[in-house]
Design a protein that fits this description.
The chain is of the alpha/beta class and about 220 residues long. The protein has one domain: TIM Barrel (Alpha-Beta Barrel). Helix content is about 30%, strand content about 20%. It contains eight helices and eight strands; from the N terminus they run E-H-E-H-E-H-E-H-E-E-H-E-H-E-H-H. The protein has an eight-stranded parallel beta sheet. Helix 5 links the parallel strand 6 and strand 7. Helix 2 packs parallel to helix 3. The longest helix has 14 residues. The protein is globular. It starts with a strand and ends with a helix. It binds D-xylitol-5-phosphate and zinc ion (ZN). The site of zinc ion has 6 residues, from strand 2.
Length: about 220
């Protein structure tokens, strides 16, 4: 399976987001990971639908939108109209997960599910046959630049086994504290896509540096 990288623009320079997206894409990124935070589900506030709408025409690779917001059902339609290619919801953020996943598919978008580190994997089991992507958080959602939580690797292994034994067809994505050391643990455990913010956008803002950072994660 191809090792795919999804740079998180949370660690990019928001003053030149379009340029940053074009540079990481040329540098070999497979997805653009967009971290949406509402200051309620997580103690941070970032970007919303209008930014997705602005970057959509610029991005030649899929927009992997991670909603860290309360009651995401209020915004599913708008985020998909804005250009999301994958829309990933937190199991802790809604009481309507099944309806939300079905709506995402009805609107022609790929559906993802994710969980906080302290949430047990059994909380998402009943949705695994409904999703195209499962995002394993290896940090507490809310900020970039945190340390990788090694005890979450078990969830990656579980999801790989479940997919094999139940004919699942989701991609396994890992998000938080991924760098050139922890990335190897994630690939070995069965990850398909790694999200990385600080590890990709660190250092010089050049295509060469971004390419080196991305290659260092594979
Ligand atoms: C955290 C976000 C992550 C974060 C990753 O809530 O969901 O995507 O931006 O940043 P790094 O790779 O720096 O941990
Ligand atoms: Zn994220």
């Amino acid at each position: 399976m191809k090792k795919m990288i999804a740079p998180s623009i949370l660690s990019a320079d928001f003053a030149k987001l379009g340029e940053e997206i074009q540079m990481v894409t040329t540098a070999g990124a497979d997805f653009i990971h967009v971290d949406v935070m509402d200051g309620h589900f997580v103690p941070n506030l970032t970007i919303g639908m209008s930014v997705v709408k602005s970057i959509n025409p610029i991005s030649k690779i899929p927009l992997d939108v991670h909603l860290m917001i309360e009651k995401p059902e209020k915004y599913i339609r708008e985020f998909i109209t804005a250009g999301s290619d994958y829309l990933t919801l937190h199991v802790e953020s809604t009481t309507q997960m099944e309806e939300n996943l079905k709506l995402i598919h009805e609107l022609g978008c790929k559906a993802g599910i994710t969980l906080r580190p302290k949430t047990d994997i059994n909380e998402i089991k009943k949705y695994l046959h409904l999703v195209d992507l499962v995002l394993v958080m290896t940090v507490e959602p809310g900020f970039g630049g945190q340390s990788f939580m090694h005890d979450q690797i078990e969830k990656i292994k579980y999801l790989k086994n479940w997919r094999e034994q139940n004919n699942g067809n989701y991609l396994i994505e890992v998000d938080g504290g991924v760098d050139s050391v922890t990335s190897k643990l994630c690939w070995d455990a069965g990850a398909d896509i790694l999200v990385a913010g600080s590890a990709v956008f660190k250092g010089e803002k050049t295509i060469e540096n971004y390419r080196k950072n991305i290659e260092g994660l594979k």
